[in-house]
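Hi V.,

You were right to ask for the full record rather than a summary. Here it is.
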Amino acid sequence: MFRVDINCDLGESFGRYKLGEQQEILKYVTSANIACGFHAGDPSVMRETVKLAIENGVKIGAHPGLPDLNGFGRREMKISPQEAYDMVVYQIGALNGFLATFGEQMQHVKPHGALFNMAAKDSELALAVAQAVYDVSPSLVLFGLANSELTAAGEKIGLQTAHEVFADRTYQSDGSLTSRQQCDALITDTKKSIAQVVKMVTEGIVISQQNTEVLIKADTVCIHGDGEHAVSFAQNIKETLKSNDVIVSAFVD
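Predicted structure:
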């Protein structure tokens, strides 16, 4: 039997701007990455998302990003390892404040967008992010791109580390995600996306854009909550995994 966590980026609305159907999607995921106000989210959205996740029995993680609301945290910024460390500590602290009001514990930390991709390739940034997580609490799980500098840093520093794969993204032959600046970065065909997830989880392989087999570790699968058919997509992935004898549960059950 295989086992995998399904995580989703949530709490990314801001003020009057609403993004995603998080109340519905929480029925089908096992871990929620909640935006902490830098790339998206605001205090009221954070509190409400925490409340909904608890009501649905979904484990909660911080989703720290770069301070770029206009770019949704997906534009790279030149930051030092110390700045990365400080940003991550600050945002974990913000979410921990809300968790404390509900008497709930944080399960994990998953960097967002450009910060996630930068730390996946830059060993110094990766170590700074991992150190920030460890210093807040060594019991936290670090979510990072499978087989990346970030997961390597987490393992080196002594954190529980979850290797993450993506349902709706294409891969390069080195195991990195295809840049969103390229037209083929996203998989829009639901059947193709689900087939990719099943192959990654049950075979440990993803087919790259160069048509090569890339070995990959899949502890947790990311689905994006802001897609046009995000809810039905989440439901389909969960049902298909179960029908392929995959146990779907949070990383820390």
